[in-house]
Amino acid sequence: MGALFFFLSFQTKTNRSLLVLQTLGCRTFSVQLALLGAFSGSLSLLVNIVRNAMLTKYNTSRVVRWKGWIAVFSALTLTIALLTWNGWISFLLVIGTIAGTIGYWTNNAKKIRLANLVANSPCMLAYDALVGSWGGVLNESVIMISIVISILRFGWNSMDGDKIGEK
After folding, report:
1. For residues 50 and 80, is the Cβ–Cβ distance under 8 A?
2. Mean pLDDT of successive 10-residue stretches along the chain, which has 167 residues
3. What angle do CA 119, 105, 69 make, to 5 degrees?
4. Per-residue b/e over 120-140, b at no fewer than 16 CB within 10 Å?
5. Nearest-CA neighbor of 40 among 136, 118, 107, 112?
6. Which helix (H) or strand (E) element contains residue 116?
7. DSSP secondary-structure letter at 158?
């Protein structure tokens, strides 16, 4: 189910829809990682849920548009990694989540996809493989495929705003 939510998220035309679907996917995988004992991953996904919920209000809330939230969420992610330290693989979560947070806070479909394709998904894929989350490995692979499909489907140049095809 989580992989389906993430795949569909990159096929939507608004960042808000993308964030709602990804929140559902994060919930699914947070539970899975907790059951595997991968608490760094599970808790970092809870941070992503809060981040995504906030970002659904990006266009209507001046507070949410504050760029300082990037530092707040990055510090929270780093703190979780240190408190649930599982060796160097915990830094994969930090790198991926921070890259994703930076991309998402631009509210730009192109930058969101780029951050996920080159940093977030590869880091999460490696983390999932190392903790034995084969559903997570499948998910990150599906995400990268879905991003490529969305770029081919909508066109790279149509992704410069928060709604694909509108500037």
Report:
1. no
2. 94 94 96 94 96 96 97 97 92 95 95 96 96 95 96 92 75
3. 105
4. bbbbbbbbbebbebebbbebb
5. 136
6. none
7. G
Neighbours of 82 (CB within 10 A): 12
Residue where the block lists tokens 């998220």: 9
Residue given tokens 């990682």 in the structure block? 33
Report whether 143 contacts 6 (CB < 8 A).
yes
Gap between the Cα atoms of 66 and 49, Å rounded: 18
- Return the number of other C-beta atoms located less than 10 Å from residue 44's C-beta: 26
Instruction: Check: CB of residue 90 under 8 Å from CB of residue 84.
Output: yes
Query: Whole-model pTM above 0.85?
Result: yes
How far is Cα 31 from Cα 142, in angstroms, rounded to an integer? Answer: 19
Instruction: For residues 6 and 21, give the distance between their C-alpha atoms in angstroms, rounded to a whole number.
Output: 6
